[in-house]
Design goal:
By secondary structure, the chain is α+β, with helices and mostly antiparallel strands. The protein has two domains: 34 residues, no CATH class; 53 residues, Multidrug-efflux Transporter Regulator, Chain: A, Domain 2 (Orthogonal Bundle). The strands form two sheets. A three-stranded antiparallel sheet has the order 3-5-4. Strands 1-2 form a two-stranded antiparallel sheet. The chain starts with 8 loop residues before the first strand and ends in a 9-residue tail after the last helix.
Amino acid sequence: MRLGASQMQFNKLGKANGSFMESSLRSQSNANNKPEIRAEEKLLLSRRDAAQVLSISQRALDYLVATRRLPTRRIGGRVLIPMADLRKYARADHPEPIVG
């Protein structure tokens, strides 16, 4: 977010600080301190992440799940796809169209 000169605040050293909201957002992101886990390192992926890994749309992935070409696991209300099955699917050839 870019602030105008009138919106900038200066600390004792004369350095410009962002607004209170920006500093609050920074402190929240630092407070979590959870290391970000890459999709390739996860055992189970969300539908969105699985579609990105396969470089297909989420709708196409949903069709693969609905036609049981990709197995899923359910945890609570979430539908998750095992990374091992995504790798297996990606290694094979699939000349047929996804929908059809």
